[in-house]
Design brief:
The protein is of the alpha/beta class. It has two domains: 1-30 and 158-191; 36-155, HUPs (Rossmann fold). 55% of the residues lie in helices and 15% in strands. It has helices at residues 2-27, 48-59, 77-84, 88-94, 104-118, 132-142, 165-190, and strands spanning 40-44, 65-69, 95-98, 122-128, 147-153. It has a five-stranded parallel beta sheet, sandwiched between helices. Helix 5 (104-118) packs across helix 6 (132-142) and helix 6 (132-142) runs parallel beside helix 7 (165-190). The mean pLDDT is 88.
């Protein structure tokens, strides 16, 4: 009985580690970012680089409007402009800010509401590379029928995460969240 348990535990650990290695390999896969366009651009907060990348996409006509979702309620438009050295004119014409979303599921719900209000169907989703697999999964769940295009923002150390303990912890933590969300969604779909 104990031997069977140990064998099953070893198999489970091997599958989990294999999944983690596959997950991290996806993070370093390159995409043809120069051809990405959409009706709208959605940026999930968490790092200033994400917002700067989203604004650059907007500035270069890769979308008509941009939604920054998950902004802390006390953060002003001017605060965001200052942090990313953004174009105030571009912000006033074409950037919307969501303060309702508290997590990735909330980001997806708010993005769906925003997309419906603007009659957008093709959306560019911008977030950090390590956050993209879970984000796209949650967005696809909340936004069935929409065309979602991933635009992952590379994070320093994506290619050598195993040499950086802090990056390794972030990736491992995000993988655990991804697996949890995957299981939760499968249980909800079958239940």
């Amino acid at each position: 009985m104990i031997r069977r348990f140990l064998v099953l535990a070893a198999i489970g650990v091997a599958i989990y580690i294999g999944g983690f290695l596959h997950f991290t390999r996806q993070l370093t896969a390159s995409i043809a970012t120069d051809t990405i366009t959409g009706d709208g651009i959605i940026v999930l907060t968490g790092a200033p680089d994400r917002i700067a990348v989203g604004l650059d996409l907007l500035k270069h006509g890769r979308g008509e409007r941009l939604l920054i979702t998950g902004v802390f309620e006390a953060t002003t438009r001017e605060d965001i402009i200052a942090v990313v050295n953004g174009d105030a004119e571009l912000f006033s014409c074409c950037v919307d800010i969501d303060r309702e979303a508290l997590d990735t599921i909330g980001n997806a719900v708010q993005a769906r509401i925003w997309s419906e209000q603007n009659d957008f169907q093709r959306l560019v989703v911008v977030t950090s590379s390590y956050h993209m697999p879970r984000s796209i999964m949650e967005f696809e769940r909340a936004m069935q029928g929409y065309d979602l295009v991933a635009y992952p923002v590379p994070v320093s150390g994506d290619h050598v995460w195993w040499r950086n303990p802090q990056a390794g912890r972030v990736y491992f933590s995000e993988y655990a969240k991804y697996v949890f969300a995957l299981v939760r969604n499968r249980v909800n779909d079958t239940g």
